[in-house]
Amino acid sequence: MEITDKFLPAEARSRKGKKKKLFIGSHFVLLLVLLFVLVPFYILVITSLESEIEANNAAFTWWPQMGFTVKAYKSVLFRKMGGTSVVRGLWNTLWIYLPGLIVGLFMSALSAFAFAKLRFRAKNFMFSVLLVTMMIPNCMSTIASFLIFDNIGWVNTPFPLMVPRMFGSIGVVFFLRQYFLGIPDDLMGAAKIDGLSNFGIFIKIMLGIAAPALIAQFIITFIGAYNDYMGPLIYLQDASMYTLQIALAFFADVYTQNWPLRMAGCVVAMLPLIILYLISQKFILKGIAVSSGLKG
Amino acid sequence: MRDKENPEFSDTRLFKNNTASSAAKKLKRREDIEGTLMAISPFIGYILFGLFPMLLSLVVSFTELKSYDITRMKFVGFDNYKTILTSEMFYTSVVNTLYYCLSVPVNMVSALFIANLLTKPLKARGFARTVLFLPSVCSTVGVTLMWTWIYEANYGVINTFLSGIGLPKVGFMTTKEWFMPSVLFLSLWMGGTNIVLMQAALANVDSSLKEAARIDGAREITVFWKITFPGITPTLFYMLIMNLIGAMQEMAIMQVITTNGVGPGYRAVTLTYYLYRMAFTNTATDGLGMGSALSWIVAIAIIIITRINFRLSKKWVNYD
To answer: Residues B50, B52, B53, CA angle at the centre, nearest 5°?
Structure first.
């Protein structure tokens, strides 16, 4: 390398050196960024495996001085507190949100299919209204929604978290519409000749073709629902109905000074989604990237 | 084919052709109804659970309502709005919210920087992508709890480090000055979604244009500002609008991170957290009327800011 470099003109040589420096520099910066993201996770896990005495009474160490223990995990998984537990919370999260998410995904897909493939008079008007609603902040509906749900007896039931989701979500409609637009129209024509109605085409053909997009949107909305905090905080008052996030916050409120326990709770609450993400990251990242496709 | 073989059949076809326009009209009507019905579900959802509560909250904002009993509403005109706009707490929460909104430009610039870094032929790019999005799938509650431990006043990581190098410990969560910067840092850590969006935008920039400019001897920085940046402005604009709408309504972090409900020196009270507290924590003193009035003030502010952003976008966003 040294020898060949010497035969290069001075300018090219300096440029090459510069490039190499830039190459090393970029890697160094990337390493710093990755450390910034990963170190907190490390701290989280290592603390959850420490003994309570060590975490609460000594300066933080990167490796437990008094040995590892899974005591905190045992408490998190098996201790019941005021009618709630993390396991119970996980179960509640699933049965409260999944029906709304599944029905909602179907309705969003149906709507997106109509916007992408059918011709009807109100189409453009309806679509631009949907666009505008995305920009309307929803903070003013929080209080009144509670008032309404309270007056029809839905507070402290899972319905406020379940039913609104069943109508589909505007963001998902946008994403799926984009996907349906990419499916050739010839397919529709062929299916019509075979005597299928529009709804039949949707059920028998489109849902199958759009399966990857549907899975992506399902996972993304599931992540959102799983991590939903303000909704269940407002509507679920009975501890036996707490979702995982509320159970976690409740745990943390009770054990304000038991850091291993709090951190173990975080790990247990985060782990299902982290595993889901690692399995399906291609779907998720693609789904998120395309959702910005409504530009211009 | 069959038509040609069977003259009677083609006769019927001819006959049908005469009435085709009315049949087509009927078909068109059917499609109109069918399409509307299929598309309508998110609308009904929005009307029932978005629009209707919004209008109700407009009504409630002109009343005094210090319980959840809707029959006890008492009309008070603009009193709620007056009380809020003259209260000191409101301006504190405006300042706090604007302070938190600093996260938008900070997170966007850092996301752009990192996404740009990832366009280079680096090792472990796939791994980096995976890692960078990881915080975004973690819940606000979990992440916030985790950072409270990192920020912890006595034995947290940062304070252990600070005292190790002979500096005094800092109460990140307990002092007025440090609270919001600590929260901003936390939100920076969670910024994976922005990086993914930015990466997608950068990947869509025409690379042949960049190559051509490089061959012409343009420097990297010029290539970035003249070719890459204009290409990603639509995504930047979309992110700016959506992140700002989100940041102006942030309250989950504040709700979890504070132990006393308001943070040191009321620094945790953002506008939406303030209205949440009015309606759900201080129901008997502030009540739902006040909360609704504040929610409309916030909403109108957000809509005005969004409109200004759309106006300004004509100057810098480049749609091709």
So the answer is: 70
